[in-house]
User: Which sequence fits this backbone?
């Protein structure tokens, strides 16, 4: 369980990707457009805490994960890790200690693994590159511990296997073992179970929960699936078009949601809808608006069935709707 000591803090974090201008734009002197992938979010994670970042495709949640793991450089705001500003950290010397403490689990395990590397090499690579072992015996011991912790037992049976010789669940566990091998304090898990069968999902989710308990591991769990977030997370942050629109405990977000977008995500899941005791299904219409053309005022209003005139001209701030529960909606109560 979280010990309330803050490990990670994001302050007004922004990422804007420039778009290529057309010939007509250049001739007419139009200003260059940008994609506002992450548009000023605030988020904190305590030691040993599991926070889920939920949203549909295009909301910017994966970009947040890549910022935290220093795979994408933010264009604004700050990233604080254990009280140290890591926003502008770069290069081998600047990032080596950080890589030791923060790791990522990617969505597609098959793409994340080198098909020419055995399981042993895949798990051993970060240990070698970060210089965390002194000899081959230590390396073998750490690889064995990591594979066992990820649920691949006995680990020796997997050492010489290649990715194509493993099932989907086993490949994902190898990726988990690779992240665990360096003994990080925070793992960013980007849709780690979306490509797995339901039974394998349950096993891997339980493994992540057990690892949190065993190692006091903090976890940012990125998903589009609200029920999964409810099962695994202590807190949930709901993201839409680069902004966090609602944040609170897992029960608050799932059963006491106040933002129309969160309600729509919840109603799209029949089981949660029935448990919540609400009638009807609130379905969203259309696609997520382009992050290069964010609507003025409330960015959700073009898809919101409850939208009113104020939403068109003014963006709502995060309003407290309960203890540690906020919602960015003018109708939040």
Assistant:
């Amino acid at each position: 369980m979280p010990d309330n000591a803050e490990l990670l803090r994001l302050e007004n974090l922004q990422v804007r990707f420039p778009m290529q201008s057309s010939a007509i734009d250049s001739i007419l002197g139009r200003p260059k457009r940008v994609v506002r992938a992450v548009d000023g979010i605030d988020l904190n994670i305590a030691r040993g805490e599991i926070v889920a970042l939920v949203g549909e495709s295009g909301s910017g949640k994966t970009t947040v994960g890549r910022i935290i793991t220093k795979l994408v450089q933010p264009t604004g705001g700050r990233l604080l890790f254990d009280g140290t500003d890591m926003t502008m950290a770069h290069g081998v010397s600047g990032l080596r200690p950080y890589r030791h403490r923060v790791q990522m689990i990617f969505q597609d395990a098959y793409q994340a693994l080198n098909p020419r590397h055995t399981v042993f090499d895949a798990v051993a690579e970060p240990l070698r590159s970060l210089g965390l072992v002194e000899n081959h015996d230590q390396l073998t011991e750490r690889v064995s511990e990591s594979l066992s912790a990820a649920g691949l037992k006995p680990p020796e049976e997997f050492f010489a296997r290649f990715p194509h010789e493993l099932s989907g669940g086993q490949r994902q566990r190898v990726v988990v073992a690779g992240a665990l091998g360096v003994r990080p304090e925070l793992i960013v898990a980007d849709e780690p179970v979306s490509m797995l069968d339901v039974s394998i999902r349950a096993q891997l989710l339980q493994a992540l929960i057990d690892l949190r308990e065993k190692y006091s591991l903090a976890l940012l769990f990125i998903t589009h699936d609200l029920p999964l977030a409810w099962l695994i997370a202590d807190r949930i942050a709901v993201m839409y078009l680069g902004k966090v629109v609602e944040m609170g405990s897992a029960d608050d977000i799932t059963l006491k949601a106040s933002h129309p977008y969160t309600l729509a995500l919840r109603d799209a899941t029949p089981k949660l809808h029935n448990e919540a005791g609400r009638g009807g299904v609130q379905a969203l219409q259309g696609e997520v608006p382009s992050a290069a053309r964010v609507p003025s005022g409330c960015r959700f209003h073009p898809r919101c069935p409850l939208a009113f005139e104020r939403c068109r001209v003014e963006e709502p701030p995060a309003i407290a709707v309960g203890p540690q529960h906020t919602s960015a909606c003018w109708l939040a109560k």
